[in-house]
Amino acid sequence: MFMLEHYDRWLGAYLDGELPEYRKKMVETHLEKCLECQAKLASMKKLSELIQNETIQPDIPSPEYFASQVMKRLLSRKEPGLERFALEVVWWLAPFVIFGAWVFVQATFLLTGWLGTDGWLKLLGDAVGWLVPTIPSTTWLTSLVFRLGFMPDTTGLMIMQQIEAFSRAIFNQMVWQISIALLYCGWLAIWLVRNRKQTISTYDSYRV
Amino acid sequence: MTSMVLESESDLITRAQQGDRDAYAALVRCHYASVIRVIYRFCGDEHLAEDVAQEAFLKAWQHLSTYRPRSSFKNWLYRIAINTATDKLRSETWLAEQDVDEMDVPDSQPSPEALMESKERAAAVNKAIMSLPPASRSVLVLRELELFSYQEIADTLDIPTGTVMSRLNYGRERLRELLINELGKMEDVHA
Asked: What CA–CA distance (Å, rounded) separates B148 from B139?
């Protein structure tokens, strides 16, 4: 026996005139032959009329009275304008500061490479010593390989020493680059969340 | 005409964002009535609705710098209002204690039994709306009473239009059941 598929979930949107044309046609065709959906649609119409006509209208105060009440409460609160402005300025300056830090770090490491650590550090005194701390020479890779029970030959040992020297040379730079990249990604993520949807981003906690 | 109104509203918003309280007071006067009405649909009490509306306007003032003219100012205000009302009702046990007989029904119409019947029906409709979960209630109020489009509701509540439709379907179905039960004479609604 042929069973009709009902269109219950589209009836409300059909009544509200919110269906796209093709879906509207489908619902109309269905309604022509489905008494049950016709009854549901009629019931929805009556319900809408009931809600719109039979709800209680509140007494609205005069605009002057209401506005004066709001202004009175507003004046009794702390003015957030200046604080908010300062926060906004700091917020928009943040990416420039991060970019500036990246340029500074890059320039420092570039010059360090050109002039040699000693030359560059002597040029600025110890001012950037914190940026390029001396890494104690370690044999972490060799130790690791031995601990794992491997016995590399002379070539293997030389390669491992080269890797250790290279890791010492770029360790500082890597740490700074990653830190700056994380800072920027954090800022970008917050910016994206704030701008995901225009409405009121600071009211996310109030979402219903 | 419309563009003039919009232009003046955007001017007021810009001035208010710069801290001009007079401009903000003008915006309040422009939107307060619709905000009170929406909140009243939510809580069913005139005094509470007025208080929550004031609170919503204070919050809007505090967060005015985050408003961007890409969306409607009215929708933005409605969202704050609905969220403030939801929080208020959540924080107070007010709704649970409310009874249909105690509901705030203004004496706006004159006449005898017809008035009584109309009042009871109106109170029953209000009670049924308020018994809906806040998520469905806000969608239903914006659609049925403020006549918002699905897109406007979606923008106001920051939800997808598909969610608007499903919440509306749920709200209407639930409301139909409640009104059938409570009034006992919804045969014509039920068809």
From this structure: 9
The separation between the first and the last C-alpha atoms of chain B, rounded to the nearest angstrom, is 44
Give yes or no for A63 touching B (CB within 8 A): yes
Partner B contacted by A20 (CB < 8 A): no
- Which DSSP category does A2 fall into? -
Alpha helices for chain B (secondary structure H)? 2-17, 21-43, 46-62, 73-91, 94-97, 113-130, 134-140, 150-157, 161-183, 187-190
The residue type found at A64 is: E
Q: CA torsion B140→B142→B145→B148, rounded to 10°? A: -120
Contact residues, chain B, for A39 at CB < 8 Å: 191
CB atoms within 10 A of CB B36: 23
CA dist A97 and A92 (Å) reads 9
The residue whose two tokens read 């026996």 is A1
At B139 the pLDDT is 93
Cβ proximity of A82 and B19 under 8 Å = no
Q: Say if residues B153 and A202 touch (Cβ distance below 8 Å).
A: no
Q: What is the DSSP letter of A135?
A: P
Q: Is B115 helix (H, G, I), strand (E, B) or coil?
A: helix
Instruction: Pick the more confident residue, A161 or B173.
Output: B173
Distances (CA, A) of B34 to B78, B106, B141, B179: 9, 18, 12, 26
Q: What is the pLDDT of residues A2-44, one digit of tens each?
A: 455 777 888 999 999 999 999 999 999 999 988 989 988 988 8
Report pLDDT for A198. Answer: 43
Taking the whole predicted model, whether its pTM rises above 0.80 is answered as: no
Contacts of A90 (CB under 8 A, 6+ apart): none
From chain B, the residues in CB contact with A88 under 8 A are 65
